[in-house]
Specification:
The complex is a heterodimer of chains A (396) and B (208). With 396 residues, chain A is α/β, with parallel strands linked by helices. Helix content of chain A is 42%, strand content 14%. Chain B folds into two domains: 8-138, Alpha-Beta Complex (Sufe protein. Chain: A); 146-201, Orthogonal Bundle (Arc Repressor Mutant, subunit A). The chains are: A alpha/beta (396), B alpha+beta (208).
Chain lengths: 396, 208
């Protein structure tokens, strides 16, 4: 890495909060199995239950409505897969409903799981989105039937940052008696989220998107909602997720949430300001750009922009050489031949999808970082376009 | 250096990515004897290659290129542009991605398909030159047929691989990298594999 590295990829993951680091170091002394009755076990158990209260409280849930899992992907897989359980109990609980409605812009862990479910005979529909990435709610009304078991719509999109109208979507879903799940890993800790206000049945959280460690997430399950565990075994998490608890991860997750509680509000304001500076800086310095995502209903630190005639992976790597870390929707960076399914779903076309860059800012970024990024982008885009076969040259 | 995450930082790749050679500049006047373009923006890459030909010696005098493509397309075509200067047209025509990668040091497997653009565009430019100079008979698209579009593997290379010992589709993939990206050519490649095994080894070694 160069001497100065400006990290602008917080939607991928975040560095640990210094307070979280301290917590992890302290927690290394806590070794007891939380299921053990002796004092070493009871200390661990107490730490976990305190953490559960913190996490639950932050999203307006009761502690017994939260289970800790290994990742956001695990939580999402668990919710969708519970549909495919053929045991009599599970089938009765979902009243023989067997179809799922989700969206065209979900995270791969939802896309792939729903694909697998479809191959196993469960009807799956993907809701389209408009040009700003908002789910077409009319289409939900059209597709929703009394056969629909579950509707799953991501709260805020990881690539373009668009925030969905979850409250409305949950209400429509419930009007046909289906359950509602939202993957909120990009939303919790960045914007206010309250499960009671939203009236959702399942909600997915993750620690590493909000300055906590990797490998720990949580799932909110509303009291009384039918549930089928994905990992069976011991009675951990009240029988809903077997496996000895990741005590260090859980406590560090709660610490990260506690820090979000203190920092989220001011940080959102600051990142929104940076976002505007970035948009103006790009507009004023670089011609032929297009901003992707919703203009106002968007995550505070997320900016997705396409540069006409410039391929995303080469932009990303030239920026990396300038000491800036971003991500791209280009196919070349993904290892497949397809560009970002999210950008394509907004209907902007493959070339602009290949030329899209996601800048996701976070708590340690400064105004100086943002200004440097604007100047580096100007240099890099010029350079890539100079080599481009497709960029319309003024002199040509 | 097969580390797929550090490929950019092999010295040769990094050098060619940061300082690509022989890029066609806007302000430059480069009258080309052959101009070839290949690739598709929808797939995220396009390459243009221009050549000037020494018509006495049938060699490439000079060349330029442009791309809408990723870092490895940029680095590999930059390397290719240095390789072909002074090269006989016939030899340049036969260059394969393998030759380019050898000169580049190495590329991780998932990046190899990006480097086939350069040699494809070069062949298109040579074809264009032949066409313009009444030598259309030298254009070889009839002769070798590309079976795997992603990795630019022809039926000839499949035959060579069979002669080289490939007996199963997996062995064919190991030798040619065919079918390792989108996989659409599997059926056709398997048919050809069986055909060449039959032809050369009497059909005792059928693919199951």
């Amino acid at each position: 890495m160069p001497d100065r590295f400006i990290y602008l990829d917080h939607n991928a993951t975040t560095p640990l909060h210094p307070e979280v680091k301290n917590t992890i170091t302290e927690m290394m002394e806590i070794y007891g199995n939380p299921s053990s009755l002796h004092s070493a076990g009871r200390i661990a158990r107490q730490k976990i239950e305190q953490s559960r209260e913190t996490v639950a409280g932050f999203i307006g849930a009761a502690p017994d409505e939260i289970i800790f899992v290994g990742s956001g992907s695990e939580a999402n897989n668990t919710v969708l897969n519970s549909l495919s359980c053929s045991s009599q109990v599970c089938r009765l609980e979902r009243k023989s409903r067997d179809s799922i409605i989700t969206t065209a812009i979900e995270h791969p862990c939802i896309m792939e799981t729903s694909k697998c479910l479809r191959e196993r005979g469960f009807p799956v529909n993907h809701l389209p989105v408009d040009v700003n990435g908002k789910v077409k709610i009319d289409k939900l009304r059209e597709l929703l039937t009394y056969q629909t078991a579950l509707v799953s719509v991501m709260y805020a999109n990881n690539e373009i940052g668009t925030i969905q109208d979850i409250k409305t979507i949950a209400e429509i879903t419930h009007s046909r008696g289906a359950f509602f799940h939202t993957d909120a890993v990009q939303a919790v800790g960045k914007i206010p989220v309250d499960v009671k206000d939203l009236n959702v049945d399942f909600l997915t959280l993750s620690a590493h998107k909000i300055y906590g460690p990797k490998g720990i997430g949580a799932l909110y399950i509303r009291r009384g909602t039918p549930f089928c565990p994905m990992i069976r075994g011991g009675h951990q998490e009240r029988g809903r997720r077997a496996g000895t608890e990741n005590t260090i991860g859980i406590v560090a997750f709660a610490k990260a949430i506690e820090m979000r509680q203190q920092e989220m509000h001011d940080e959102a304001e600051r990142l929104n300001r940076f976002r505007k500076i970035l948009i103006d800086g790009i507009k004023n310095n670089i011609p032929d750009v297009q901003f992707n995502g919703h203009p106002t209903d968007v995550l505070p630190g997320t900016l997705n922009v396409s540069f006409v005639g410039a391929e995303g992976e080469s932009i990303l790597l030239y920026l990396d050489l300038e000491g800036i870390g971003v991500s791209t929707g280009s196919a070349c960076a993904s290892g497949s031949l397809d560009p970002s399914h999210v950008i394509l779903a907004t209907g902007i076309g493959a070339e602009l999808a290949h030329g899209s860059i996601r800048i996701s800012m976070g708590r340690e970024n400064t105004l100086d970082d943002i200004q440097y990024t604007i100047s580096a982008l100007k240099r890099v885009i010029q350079r890539v376009r100079d080599m481009s076969t497709t960029y319309q040259r003024k002199t040509a | 250096m097969s580390d797929q995450f550090n490929w950019l930082y092999t010295d040769i790749v990094k050098d060619h990515f940061t300082n690509p050679r022989n890029v066609l500049r806007d302000e430059e006047n480069f009258p080309a004897d052959g101009n070839g373009i290949t690739g598709n923006i929808k797939c995220g890459d396009q390459m243009q290659f221009l050549i000037q030909v020494d018509k006495v010696n049938n060699t490439i005098k000079d060349c330029r290129w442009r791309t809408y493509g990723c870092a490895s397309a940029i680095a590999s075509t930059s390397v290719l542009s240095e390789m072909v200067k002074g090269m006989k047209l016939d030899d340049a025509y036969r260059l394969t991605p393998k030759d380019i990668i050898k000169n580049l040091g190495s590329l991780p497997e998932h990046k190899i398909h990006c480097s086939v653009l350069g040699d494809k565009a070069l062949r298109a430019a040579i074809d264009d030159y032949y066409r313009r100079n009444g030598m259309a008979d030298k254009i070889k698209h009839e002769e070798a047929r590309v079976i795997c579009q992603c990795m630019n593997v022809t039926d000839h290379e499949i035959e060579e691989a069979v002669l080289d010992g490939a007996r199963t589709y997996i062995e064919l993939q190991e030798r040619t990298k065919l079918g390792t990206v989108c996989g659409q050519c599997e059926e056709e490649a398997t048919e050809l594999l069986n055909k060449y095994i039959e032809e050369h080894f009497g059909g005792n070694l059928k693919l199951l």
